[in-house]
Amino acid sequence: MHVVKKIEIIANSFELAKILDSLDKSGVHSHAVIRNVAGKGLRGTTEDLDMTMLDNVYILAFCMPEQLKPVVENIKPLLNKFGGTCYVSDVMEIRSVRCVASM
């Protein structure tokens, strides 16, 4: 097990491509995207939006601690311009070297 950074971003789906491109340019090449995220924040609820284009997305990515600075430098301007939130936390990664099929 080793420490990695967990990056959680909630933003407008319209900006998804730019955010994923920024993660990729920062060296974070893997991610998960959950679409149609609803919730309540400082601006109120987001689940009553009628247009799919305005739905929020949740982006989950992990990186090594030394990769975090470029991620923040690339993501922060996008979130400042288009809105959204980003949370970073320390988590432990477990990598398995054994294939389940061989057990």
TrEMBL record:
GO terms for molecular function: enzyme regulator activity. GO terms for biological process: regulation of nitrogen utilization. This is P-II family nitrogen regulator. It comes from Nostoc sphaeroides CCNUC1. The lineage of its organism: Bacteria, Bacillati, Cyanobacteriota, Cyanophyceae, Nostocales.
